[in-house]
Specification:
Helices cover about 45% and strands about 25% of the residues. The chain is an alpha+beta fold and about 100 residues long. It has a four-stranded antiparallel beta sheet with strand order 2-1-3-4. The two termini are about 20 Å apart. The mean pLDDT is about 95.
Length: about 100
């Protein structure tokens, strides 16, 4: 699973101009990137709070609040990108955070 080139496609609102993508070297880095987006949003909304905490439900609500979110993950065996939806991303984020918490 490591080192699978991952592209996150995202649209934050109904405005098509908010479409963007983020490019990562692995699925794990992509999940960190999505968590980082949420954490930056929390800091922007709460600039006076030094230590902000959140749980997985808050992160899922952020993800569900995006107009669109999907992932393209490179599959070496077929030399192509495979598409994955928002639900897959949420499952992967949960697994990723669980692994980080157990360290």
């Amino acid at each position: 699973m490591a080192n699978r080139h991952t592209i996150i496609l995202m649209q934050t609102s109904q405005n098509r101009a908010t479409r963007t993508f983020m490019d990562y070297n692995s699925i794990s880095q992509a999940m960190d990137g999505i968590c980082g987006l949420y954490e930056r949003k929390l800091k922007d909304l709460n600039p006076t709070i030094g230590n902000i905490t959140y749980d997985i439900t808050d992160l899922y609500n952020f993800i569900d609040g995006l107009t669109d979110l999907s992932a393209l993950v490179y599959e070496h065996s077929i030399q192509a990108f495979l598409p994955y939806d928002r639900q897959w991303i949420k499952q992967r984020i949960f697994q990723h955070l669980k692994k980080l918490a157990s360290r």
